[in-house]
Amino acid sequence: MSLAPDDRKERVIAARVPEALDDAIRRHATSLGLSVSNLVRNVLQNSLGLVGDIVADSAEIARLARGERQRDPALFGSAPARSPRVIGWQEVRLAVNAVCELCNAVLPRGTQAAVGVLEGAGAVRLRCEKCIDQTPAEEPHAD
To answer: For residue 98, what are the contacts with CB-CB under 8 A and spacing of at least 6?
Structure first.
């Protein structure tokens, strides 16, 4: 699937942050060898998924606490949203610094890592060499 030229354009989001936070972000980006823009983009991409999961989990806990058996379709739609399934891992030598999706280890540019080959469209998934063969509980096993 190729993207139309307009779909590939990135947008700029401006946000006001306290000076101390700006300094901390810049120091952290420098320590990881990333630009501030890439660090903030990565944090936002990962945070949105976490926030969605927390909201869904909180709603599920509240539903169970009330003794309800079925999910509220207004909260979850017809089925819970799932990330595309990884059908395999391709080992790569990184051209940029990255972070392992499981152990959060920093993966420096030039090191070996693995990229998840997805069954459908989705965010790039990276793992360090130690985590390639680990399967989290929420990820379905291939049979």
So the answer is: 106, 107, 113, 126
The Cα–Cα gap between 10 and 2 comes to 16
Identify whether residues 39 and 94 lie together within a single domain: no
The CATH code of the domain that includes 141 is 3.30.60
Tokens (6 digits) for 123: 């965010």
The DSSP result for 18-60, as a single string, is: -HHHHHHHHHHHHHHT--HHHHHHHHHHHHHHHHHHHHHHHHH
Which tens digits make up the pLDDT trace of 35-78? 888 888 877 777 766 666 666 667 767 766 776 665 555 555 54
- Please report, as a single letter, which amino acid is at residue 110: G
> Which pair of tokens denotes residue 3?
């993207």
Tell me the β-bridge partners of 86.
Answer: 118
Question: Partners of 93 in the beta sheet?
Answer: 112
